[in-house]
Structure formats: structure tokens, C-alpha cells
Amino acid sequence: MYQHILIPLENSATDRAILDHLRPLVKLTGATVRLLHVADGWVARNFNKLELAESEEMKTDRLYLDTVAAELQAQGLTVTTELALGDPPVEIVKAAEASRCDLIAMAGHGHRWFGDLFHGSTITEVRHRTAIPILVVRGPKK
């Protein structure tokens, strides 16, 4: 069924929704989980071009990924992590394809038309950029 599942995390309460939903599926299939966070602040977007030092945001994001990975590994899951830099939809698709993932599992905020207009929709952009199946789980209401 699934061998490699990419789970983009945003370091928010929404992450718990996708992690809780995917845990039984991952245990059932024995899939490898790749946790991804895309740092998209100014430093992250210009990190390589300007040869900048890692920002506090990036350090915090890396620590968060490692913490979540350790939690899942303690439950017997096989997990890898990646901190990507740049535009989230582009980096999510790039990571999924590079890792040969057969599922992208994301949590959504449940924005409606106005919310998507003002905040954009990473999920919408990802689904337009890839043929890899996407599982979307609604996160907690704000």
C-alpha cells in the first residue's frame, strides 16, 4: 500500500491532527515517515543565496522536527526528518518527489473562501503541483 509517507508539519496544534490520524496507518503498512518543515522566513528564503547564519526560527524548527521524530520512533515508527527552506508548496512537492513518497499527508486549517484568499492555501498549491496522492485531515478549529 504505502511505503513512504511525507508529513509536512508547521509547528502548530494542527500537526497533532495529522500525526494522530496517520499513526495507525503507518503501523498497519510499515511505511517510513518523512517529517518535513519548511522554514519560510526571510533568513530561510535567502539562506543559501546570501550565505546567512541559521536563524533562531530555523533552530527552533529543527528542534521541533527532532522532538516529533523521537516521539514517533519511541512508538516503533521509522522516521526521517528534513528542514527545507523557501516556499512551502514548492518545497513539499520537491521533498515528496525526491524521497519517492507515495502519499503526502497534510492537516488543513479549514479556511473558507475568504481565508484562502487572504492566507493562501498550501494544500491547494501542492495538489496542483503533484500527481502524488494527498490525504488531508482537518485540524482543530481556531
CATH topology: Rossmann fold
| Domain count | 1
In whole angstroms, the N-to-C terminal distance is: 34 Å
CATH architecture: 3-Layer(aba) Sandwich
Labels describing this entry:
142 residues, alpha/beta, Rossmann fold, 6 helices, globular
General description of the model:
The protein is an alpha/beta fold and 142 residues long. The chain has one domain (4-138): HUPs (Rossmann fold, 3-Layer(aba) Sandwich), CATH 3.40.50. Helices cover 46% and strands 23% of the residues. It is built from six helices and five strands. The protein has helices spanning 14-29, 42-46, 56-74, 88-98, 113-119, 122-129, and strands at residues 4-9, 32-39, 78-85, 103-108, 134-138. A five-stranded parallel sheet has the order 3-2-1-4-5, sandwiched between helices. Helix 4 crosses helix 6. The radius of gyration is 15 Å and the shape is globular. The N and C termini lie far apart (34 Å).
Summarize the structure.
It is built from six helices and five strands; from the N terminus they run E-H-E-H-H-E-H-E-H-H-E.
How are the SSEs placed, and which strands pair?
Elements: E1 4-9, H1 14-29, E2 32-39, H2 42-46, H3 56-74, E3 78-85, H4 88-98, E4 103-108, H5 113-119, H6 122-129, E5 134-138
Parallel strand pairs: 1-2, 1-4, 2-3, 4-5
